């Protein structure tokens, strides 16, 4: 059941020094590729980074988060086109990438891998390191590898009654 992966998913910031097999990486990327997007625009491009020097540079660009340079794989999510105008007030591209990353994180858990969604980064530095054109935006980065500590964490979430209402806003 997918709820098992949802319950096991956590932000991993400490990884084993063990490469991710190509088959597993491809399954994670396929999960992102298959994610839905508004009007099926698929406004994304994912850059896979494995090289140690580049990962270490990205760690610095990610506000000196050392673990980013130590993980075997980093996936950068780029916005390559406008998304759909949602509700008449926002562009769906970031949300679409969020859905794709969520699919990737859950597939990673299913495969025994860990991830951490990185939002703390300096886009101009990431773009320079990854040679991303000026007109392309970097939405987020995702670390991917084998967690050093596979222990599950207790989810601290609001009760369902606090976040759901029926028929009308209450």
Q: For the largest beta sheet, what order do the strands appear in spatially?
A: 1-2-6-5
Shape: globular
Q: What is the class in the CATH system?
A: Alpha Beta
The class by helix and strand makeup works out as alpha+beta
CATH superfamily, by name, is NADH Oxidase
**Tally of DSSP β-strands:** 6
Give the termini separation: 31 Å
CATH fold title = NADH Oxidase
Oligomer: single chain
User: Tell me about the biggest sheet?
Assistant: 4 strands, antiparallel
Poorly predicted regions are none
CATH architecture call = 3-Layer(aba) Sandwich
The number of helical elements comes to: 7
How many structural domains are formed by the residues? 1
Q: H/E order of the elements?
A: HHEHHEEEHEHEH
Rg over CA atoms: 17 Å
Assess the beta-strand content as a share of residues.
Answer: 15-25%
Give your account of this protein's structure.
- The protein is of the alpha+beta class and 170 residues long.
- The chain has one domain (14-149): 3-Layer(aba) Sandwich (NADH Oxidase).
- It is built from seven helices and six strands, in the order ααβααβββαβαβα.
- The strands form two sheets. Strands 1-2-6-5 form a four-stranded antiparallel sheet, sandwiched between helices.
- A hairpin with a 3-residue loop joins strand 3 and strand 4.
- The radius of gyration is 17 Å and the shape is globular.
């Amino acid at each position: 059941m997918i709820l098992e992966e949802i319950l096991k998913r956590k932000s991993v910031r400490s990884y084993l020094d063990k490469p991710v097999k190509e088959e597993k990486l491809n399954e994670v990327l396929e999960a992102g590729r298959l994610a839905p997007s508004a009007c099926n625009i698929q406004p994304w491009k994912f850059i896979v980074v494995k090289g140690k020097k580049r990962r270490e540079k990205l760690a610095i660009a990610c506000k000196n988060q050392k673990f980013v340079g130590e993980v075997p794989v980093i996936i950068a999510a780029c916005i390559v086109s406008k998304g759909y105008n949602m509700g008449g007030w926002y562009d769906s591209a970031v949300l679409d990438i969020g859905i794709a990353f969520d699919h990737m994180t859950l597939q990673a858990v299913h495969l025994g891998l860990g991830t951490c969604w990185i939002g703390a980064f300096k886009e101009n530095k990431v773009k320079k390191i990854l040679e991303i054109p000026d007109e392309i935006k970097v939405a987020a980065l995702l670390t991917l590898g084998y967690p050093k500590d596979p222990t599950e964490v207790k989810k601290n979430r609001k009760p369902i009654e606090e976040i759901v209402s029926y028929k009308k806003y209450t």
